[in-house]
Design goal:
137 residues, mainly beta, seven-stranded antiparallel β-sheet, five-stranded antiparallel β-sheet, 1 helix, 12 strands
Length: 137
């Protein structure tokens, strides 16, 4: 059993007793403004070394090579990962492929590379490689 599969099993067993809603950060980089969006975790899958978290608005969060889940009633965080990819739909528009966007953080020896498909403004990401890979605040 991979680490992702073990973590998925733990999350499934403990939902909804653990923190499962909040605003997301990826390597300390906020998705949107701090405390602006609330995302609710509704399910989890594991595909080999990839953990996939499913949220209430059909968003998904892929976490490759996840390590150290910290989850209780006040905290939900994954301490480290080699890659994090958040997929969401433009809010207020139909949930169609052309309205789906993605932010992907890949850990490199030199820091964290970010790819963002947002097309209505120029995003400015400031990930911190020492911060938790993902956290719900």
């Amino acid at each position: 059993m991979t680490a992702a599969e073990r973590i998925a099993d733990e999350i499934r067993r403990r939902l909804p007793q653990i923190k499962h809603a909040g605003t997301l950060t990826f390597f300390g980089d906020w998705f949107g403004k701090p405390m602006d969006n609330i995302h609710t975790l509704v399910g989890v899958d594991a595909e080999g070394d990839r953990l996939v978290l499913h949220f209430d608005q059909r968003e998904t969060l892929e976490i490759d090579d996840p390590t150290t889940l910290v989850a209780d009633q006040r905290t939900f965080a994954m301490r480290d990962a080699s890659r994090v990819c958040w997929r969401w739909f433009y809010y207020g528009r139909p949930r169609t492929p052309e309205n789906q966007y993605m932010i992907e953080y890949t850990k490199l020896p030199s820091g964290i590379d970010v790819v963002d498909t947002t097309d209505w403004y120029e995003p400015h990401h400031t990930p911190d490689p020492t911060a938790a890979a993902i956290e719900l605040h």
